[in-house]
Every structure is written in C-alpha cells, then in structure tokens.
Amino acid sequence: MQENTNKSLAINTLVLYIRLIVTAICGLFTTRFALEALGVVDYGLFSVIGSIISFIAIINTIMVSTSNRFIAVAIGKRDIREANKQFNVCLIIHVLISFCTIIFSLPIGEWYIYHYLNYAGDITNALMVFRFTIIASAVTFIGVPYNGLLSAKEKFIVFCVPDIISHILKLVVAYLIVFYFENKLMIYSLSIAIFTAYPVIVYIVYCRKNYHEISHITFIRDKKCYKEIIIFSAWVAYGAIAYVGKAQGAAILVNAFFSTVMNTALGIANAINGIIVNFAQNVAQPIAPQITKSYAAGDKDRSNYLLVLSTKLTFLAMFLVSSPFLVGTEWILQLWLGQVPDYAAMFTILVIVDALIDSLNSGIKNIIFASGRIKMFQIASSTLKMFAIVAAFIVLKIGAPAYSLLYAYILFTVLVFFANQWVLSKTLNYDNAYLWKRSYVPSLLVVGLFCPCFFLKLFIPQFVVIVFSILYLCILILLVGLTRQERNYLYFIVSKTYKK
Question: Exposed site from 199, 214, 242, 430, fewest CB < 10 Å?
Fold first, then answer.
C-alpha cells in the first residue's frame, strides 16, 4: 500500500508542477501586460479591490480542507454512504456561505469604497470592479465541496487542467487590452472574474459524472452531522478570515496611509509571492490527503513521516524558487517590468521572507485537521495573525515607510510558528524534537550556508549571482537538506519520469 501511495504522490506532484510552470509564466506576463495597459493608478486600484479574488482563492484552498477532511476520512474507512452524507452537508453549508458573501459583502464593500478608498479616478470603476469580484467569489464558494472531493480522491489533474486554461485566458485578455478596448479596467476585471469562476463548472460536471455515488445531491436531516461540520467549518473560517485579513489588510492599510500608486508596488510583490507560494503549495497539496487518510486509518508512523516530509519539502522548494528574487530582486524586476515602481523591490523581499517563515508550518495544519481537534490551533495561530494587522497599523500610524508594516507581519509570523509547535504538542502529544531534528534543523542549516550568496551582488553582476545561487542551493538541498533515503527516492522519481 505504501508503494502505491508513494507512486500516487509522485504522479500528483508531477502534474501539479506542470500546472505550476504554465501558471507561473502566464502570471508573470499577465501582471506585466496588465500594468502596461491599466497604468499605475488603475493597477493599484485592482490590487486593492480586484485582488480579493486572489485571496478568496486562498480562502477556498483553506475551506477545501473542511470538505477534504470529512470526505477523506469516510473514504479512508471505505464508507461511500458516509462520504455522500458528508459531501451534501458541506455543499449546503457552502451554498449558504455563497449567499451570505453577496448579501453582506456588497453593501459593506460599497460603503468602504464611497467613504474611505483613496483613488484618484472615477469611483464608478471601483464599484464595478468590486461587484465583479464579489459575484465571482460567491460562485467559487459553491465549488469548494467538489474541489474537496477531488482532493480526497487525489484527482489533481482534474482541477489542474481548468486552472491552466483559466490562466492562459487571463494572459490573452491582459495582452489584448494593451492594444484594444477603451474601458480597459472594466474589461480586465470582468474577464478575471469570469475565468476565476469557470473551473467550478468543470469540477461539478466531472464529479457528477465520475463520482455520482458520492456527489449526487440528497437532503441530509442529521442535525448532529451539520453541527459537527459547522463547528469545524467555523474554526476553519476563522483561520481563513485571519489569513485573508492579514493579506488584504496590508493593501487596505497602504491605501489608507498612502495611495493606489504605492499599492502598485505591493501588488507586484504579491504577484511574485503568489507564484512562489503556489509552487510551495504544489509540494504540500498531494501530501495533505494522504496525511488525513493515514491518520484516519490509524497509521501513525506514516502520518508522522508525511508531516516531516511536508514541512521540509515545502520550505526547501519555496526557498529554491524564491532565492533568485532574494539575491537579484532589482535585476529581475527591471527585466520583467521595464519601469519598476518605487519600493517594489523592498516589498518583494519582505513579503517573500514572511511567506518563507509561514511555510515552515506546512503539514502541521493537515495533521491537526485530520484529528478534528482544531479549536486550539485556530485560536492560537489566527488570533496572532489578527494582532499582526493591529501592529502594522500602529507602525504606519507613527509615520514609518509603507513597507515597514511587513516587519510587523514577519514578527508575528515567527510567533505563529512557535505557537503552532506548542499546539501540536498539547493537542496530539506530538514529539516536537523529532520534527525539529528531521525537518527544521536541516532546513535552517541550508539557509545558514546559503547566506553568503546575499553579499555576492556587491562584487559580481546580479545575473551571475542568480545563476550561481540556484546551483549552489540545489547542492545544499541535496546534500544537507535531504536524507539519503529522500535523495534516493527523488532520484528514483526523476529517473522514472525521464524514462517515460
């Protein structure tokens, strides 16, 4: 069984990385063309309002863990009837969330835009962008249980293909509006909203056709089942709100104290960080359902092994991808954008550092969610993220530069990391020393040995530094970050893929 699950893990990882390469390239060029077409002011507006879609996508990813957890546990127990029951309860809950998103978000968001948005253009444009965004977000919420079912079934290729098509279409529209259309902001916003919501239709059709025994809709009257999932979902939602509040809070705070021009710099940093985080999530995503199934089946050794694997590989993969942006930020931004907005480089570096520290938590959430005992975890980590927003506000209030709010974020991300260690020990009686020895110490040792690369740009061209740092980091990861067993497994997967 372990051989089969390892094979599935390898295939799903390969599929996710194919998606990653395509979406990363599309994402970079889409940002470049959109900035050129919209200009600094309107692109900054889209970064403040339109970026809600990006953060809703993050919420969906987090909320999928609810559907995934309950469906995967039922599948792990080979109980199809129970899986169908859990699916339908999740679907009803998310349909209600979708309606609530429209009913409450539209009036509150429009009130904020009228009274507090710092925008030099036509306020009607801001309202339309916001409305497109909210409606698209509401549609994506309905697709969460279907996404959770696909994740539990480990059918990653099904949501990879629509995602790739969606990113290609976004790139095409961004390119076209450079040369055509008068109301470029409206066309771009509407297109992004449509292409974001479209994959949901694919998920629904596929699940209805291939997993009808689980996805067929029936009304569940079991109040206990609703109560269990609602309580679990409420704590997940609290975490999602904190995560998005922290991310979107940065854009709102920057806009409140500065302008949409400064939001453009932050938006560029977030675009780069989104690609890097997506890369790291592609490492953890195929591991997550196996952690849940292993835990549900009582296979403690395998769930512990997967926890270590998830935390270490996620961090090392993210560090590898982000290293060029850390050592050669100015050169990459100049090559990518041509004209680089002020402070974009500083925003980029700090956003990446914050995300790198946060990636050390990968896997911890999955194993705690698998246990179902998430209350303490959500209270500790999510409350600290909320406090980060308050700290960032204070930093900007005293007159610090815009990018200084990210120093507050980084400090609280470190606190969240240690809080999660405490929760893991208290909730599951987990041996944290084992996790540090097998995952964190090798990862931090790689970072320490890589640090001299940051000073090389003082002596040699940045392009040379980027190439050297990537090669050097690959060697460090193979020799220092990974164990012999992990290296041998990696070589096996690569050679197997090459032969195909």
Answer: 430
